[in-house]
């Protein structure tokens, strides 16, 4: 068993102001995505200015934060927030939904694409390889907060989390998600997008592989206590929300490669 590295969730304090690692991870994810976007923007559209790219990052960040928070409220704990709406603003305590953030980013990108004369999936293909950096950083934030831990286990790398009332050795599922949703997904998308691909292909790869990775990790991650398992003693809300992503990813790839395949087999 590995010892959990006790890290103070607060990076530093300036009087009443506290800077939390969880919030800092979001800044790292957004800042890193901005830097990666700057490396890719010439191939995407050499006419884009620095101001245009900054505008895009602003809208993406807005979609992540607002969509992620509202998604958590709606998908995972509506009753608690209904009784105390002020909890919605307490982002430093955790409680962000990837799927809500994903919907928020799509809506913001749809608005941005219309405003700048871009096709929606053209823009989504551009930003998809940037997202895993933020996902990975967010999972490190979950680990530091000692939240979203996994099921009890006897694997050699199990950990006892200070927030666990039972003090059982558990899967460090946050690190599994960091490795899959952050590192592995970044490598897949970055390598895949380095060559010209038909529109929707990169977006399809993102939706498919994120959905698969998240669906698998949910088998060893504890469900949210206020929801528990939703069916058959093992199905979680995360898995249910991932099924449309997996199906949508497959459909996007099918549409993206339908015409190239038809051209290959035409006489």
Provide the gyration radius in Å.
20 Å
Question: Percentage of helical residues?
Answer: 55-70%
Supply the number of structural domains.
Answer: 1
How much of the sequence lies in strands comes to: under 5%
What is the helix tally? 9
Secondary-structure element order, as H and E?
A: EEHHHHHHEEHHH
How many β-strand runs?
A: 4
Output mean pLDDT. 88
Low-confidence stretches: none
Largest sheet: 2 strands, antiparallel
Structural class: mainly alpha
The rough form would be described as: globular
Give the CA-CA distance, first to last residue: 62 Å
Output the strand order for the largest sheet. 1-2
Question: Any overview of this molecule?
Answer:
It is found in: Cell membrane. Catalyzes the transfer of the diacylglyceryl group from phosphatidylglycerol to the sulfhydryl group of the N-terminal cysteine of a prolipoprotein, the first step in the formation of mature lipoproteins. Keywords: Cell membrane, Lipoprotein, Membrane, Transferase, Transmembrane, Transmembrane helix. It is a multi-pass membrane protein. Strand 3 (159-160) and strand 4 form a beta hairpin. This protein has one domain. The protein is mostly helical. Helix 2 packs antiparallel against helix 4 (98-115). The strands form 2 sheets. The chain has a two-stranded antiparallel sheet with strand order 1-2. The protein is 61% helix and 5% strand. The protein has 9 helices and 4 strands, in the order E-E-H-H-H-H-H-H-E-E-H-H-H. It is globular, with a radius of gyration of 20 Å. It has helices at residues 21-44, 50-76, 78-83, 98-115, 120-127, 131-144, 173-192, 201-217, 237-265; strands at 10-14, 17-20, 159-160, 169-170.
């Amino acid at each position: 068993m590995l010892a959990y590295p006790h890290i103070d969730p607060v990076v530093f304090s300036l009087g009443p102001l506290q800077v939390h690692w969880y919030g800092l991870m979001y800044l790292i994810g957004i800042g890193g995505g901005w830097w990666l976007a700057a490396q890719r923007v010439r191939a995407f559209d050499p006419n884009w200015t620095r101001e245009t790219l900054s505008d895009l990052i602003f809208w993406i960040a807005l979609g992540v934060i607002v969509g992620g928070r509202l998604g958590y409220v709606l998908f995972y704990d509506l009753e608690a927030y209904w009784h105390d709406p002020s909890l919605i603003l307490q982002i430093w305590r955790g409680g962000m939904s990837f799927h809500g953030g994903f919907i928020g980013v799509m809506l913001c990108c749809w608005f941005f694409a219309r405003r700048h004369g871009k096709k929606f999936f053209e823009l989504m293909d551009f930003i998809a390889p940037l997202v895993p950096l933020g996902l990975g950083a967010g999972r490190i934030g979950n680990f530091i907060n000692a939240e979203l831990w996994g099921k009890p286990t006897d694997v050699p790398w199990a950990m006892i989390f200070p927030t666990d009332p039972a003090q059982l050795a558990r899967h460090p599922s946050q690190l599994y998600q960091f490795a899959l949703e952050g590192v592995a997904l970044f490598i897949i998308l970055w390598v895949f997008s380095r060559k010209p691909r038909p529109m929707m292909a990169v977006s399809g790869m993102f939706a498919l592989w994120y959905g698969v990775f998240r669906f698998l990790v949910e088998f060893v991650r504890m469900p949210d206590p206020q929801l528990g398992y939703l069916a058959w003693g093992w199905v979680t809300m995360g898995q249910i929300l991932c099924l449309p992503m997996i199906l949508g990813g497959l459909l996007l790839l099918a549409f993206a490669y339908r015409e190239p395949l038809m051209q290959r087999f035409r006489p």
